[in-house]
Amino acid sequence: MLISKCIAVRKPMSITHPKLHAHVVNFETPETWAELLHGDIAFSCLGTTLSQAGSKAQWRVDYDYQWQFAERCRKTAFLLSCWYLLLGADAKSSMFYNKMKRKTRRCCQNLNFPKLPYLSAISIGS
Predict the structure, then answer these.
(1) How far is Cα 61 from Cα 63, in angstroms, rounded to an integer?
(2) Would strands 80-84 and 5-9 be described as parallel, antiparallel, or unpaired?
(3) What does the pLDDT look like over 47-95, one tens digit per residue?
(4) Which residue, among 102, 30, 27, 44, has the nearest Cα to 78 in the 3D structure?
(5) Please, are residues 102 and 87 in contact by the beta-carbon 8 Å criterion?
(6) How confident is the model at residue 28 (pLDDT cuts 50, 70, 90)?
(7) Nearest Cα to 105, choosing from 94, 116, 96?
(8) Distance from first CA to last CA of the chain, Å, rounded?
């Protein structure tokens, strides 16, 4: 069985592989990349930092873009979606980032994927 990967990135990548198809997309316009979504498993590792983006832009990347991606994956009938999220994300946290990540997780759960595992830096050995 040939397994290939299609990924959506914000800027060109420096690595290439015959089984990896990288598409540079503008996450502000999901209608231009939604047709790229097909398959059984979706992974999302999209994110930025507060120092790079500021709080409004960080929310846009770490919540809005994640939500748009998850919603489109679910509409395309993905069976499994995996998300890289902060371990200990808590909607009641006093920390902006923890609240944002918890809200992202809750919204993805509401899409009712058959399976929706979450990965954290600890669970993948970083």
Answers:
(1) 6
(2) unpaired
(3) 888 888 887 888 898 889 988 988 888 888 777 666 665 555 666 667 7
(4) 44
(5) no
(6) very high
(7) 116
(8) 30
Whole-number Cα distances in Å, 108 to 1, 11, 32, 58: 30, 25, 22, 18
- The secondary structure of 67-105 as a DSSP string is HHHHHHHHHTT-SEEEEE--TT--TT-SSHHHHHHHHHH
Residue-by-residue DSSP string for 12-64 = --S--BTTEEEEE--TT-GGGTGGG--SSEEEE-----HHHHHHHHHHIIIII
* Tokens standing for residue 95: 């920390």
Average pLDDT over residues 15-41: 87
3-state DSSP assignment of residue 107: helix
d(CA 71, CA 78): 10
* Buried-state track 60-84, b at ≥16 Cβ within 10 A, e below 16: ebbbebbebbbbbbbeeebeebbbb
Q: Is 106 helix (H, G, I), strand (E, B) or coil?
A: helix
Cβ contact 108:66 at 8 Å: yes
Q: Name the pTM for this structure.
A: 0.76
Structure tokens at 120: 């954290």
